[in-house]
User: Which sequence fits this backbone?
């Protein structure tokens, strides 16, 4: 049996809620099938992103963000995810394009940092169809994320709509990642993606069959997370763990370099969707996650500034 379990979202909500509480407490990672995401939208995204990463470097580099900005193209080795945990490592062996909300919120953006997470996305002139393809997928992931959050509420003995006011205008992020072939010697400690936890509420990941994603188990061993056809990998982020007073786990994970045979030089593609709370949502310990006489482990934190601080610590150039 795989360490990361598979849940079928066509099951009834009560069964799912019980299973979610168990897996989020014990593992912090799970995979889902029966999720209802339109496969045509998935496939258009996958093939169009492949075409994006095959563009000439000058087309991609034209989309690089200004310093401190969250969205745009990040070239190979320009980011080190392990830095978010204070660990110095060489830059990760991946390139990515980071995208934010596809439309601004209804309220006025008076905070410059909040305004920055709603800034227009950068799109390549050479691949104009990428914008609509990503917008369609972003919408599918938003619906799925909201469904998962309502199941999370049930799992935590809360009303189904408990989180709704905190995710009404969530500045979630879509990231597409290309891990190029690795046929050159690596620097000491260099990985495709260094060990890290995710920062927000939950992450929905689509990955290919190349492999390399690993999570830490309770014995501190690295365990592979295999690809499930038609499935998504879901993991709990730091904010969700904080909300639950660490009842649920934001689990350390990484992407390692392939070893041996054809896999040693294999290209890998993945697309994580980082679902976040509203910028101004206050994340404090949920009452259902405190035992009698127990105190919260963490002070309340405002979601947006917390996430922005973590992001800025990961960028090396």
Assistant:
């Amino acid at each position: 049996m795989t360490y990361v379990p598979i849940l079928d979202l066509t099951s009834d909500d009560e069964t799912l809620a019980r299973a979610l509480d168990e897996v989020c407490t014990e593992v912090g990672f799970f995979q889902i099938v029966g999720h209802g995401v339109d496969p045509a939208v998935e496939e258009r995204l996958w093939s169009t992103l492949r075409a994006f990463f095959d563009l000439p470097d000058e087309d991609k580099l034209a989309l690089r963000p200004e310093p401190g900005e969250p969205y745009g193209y990040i070239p190979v080795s320009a980011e080190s995810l392990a830095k978010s945990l204070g660990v110095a490592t060489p830059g990760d062996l991946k390139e990515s394009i980071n995208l934010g909300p596809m439309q601004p919120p209804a309220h006025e953006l008076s905070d410059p940092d909040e305004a920055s997470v709603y800034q227009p996305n950068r799109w390549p002139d050479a691949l104009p169809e990428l914008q609509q393809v990503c917008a369609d997928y972003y919408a599918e992931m938003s619906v799925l994320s909201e469904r998962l959050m309502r199941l999370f509420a049930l799992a935590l003995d809360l009303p189904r709509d408990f989180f709704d006011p905190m995710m009404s205008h969530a500045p979630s992020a879509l990231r597409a990642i290309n891990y190029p072939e690795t046929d050159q010697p690596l620097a000491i400690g260099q990985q495709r993606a260094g060990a890290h936890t995710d920062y927000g509420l939950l992450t929905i990941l689509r990955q290919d069959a190349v492999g390399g994603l690993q999570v830490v188990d309770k014995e501190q061993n690295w365990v592979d997370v295999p690809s499930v056809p038609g499935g998504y990998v879901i993991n709990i982020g730091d904010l969700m763990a904080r909300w639950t007073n660490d009842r649920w786990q934001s689990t350390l994970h990484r992407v390692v370099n392939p070893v041996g045979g054809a896999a040693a030089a294999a290209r890998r593609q993945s697309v994580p969707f980082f679902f976040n709370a509203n910028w101004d949502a206050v994340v404090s310990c949920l009452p259902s996650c405190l035992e009698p006489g127990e105190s919260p482990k963490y002070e309340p934190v405002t979601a947006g500034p917390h996430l922005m601080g973590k992001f800025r610590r990961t960028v090396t150039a």
User: Anything to note?
Assistant: Residues 130-155 form the longest helix (26 residues).
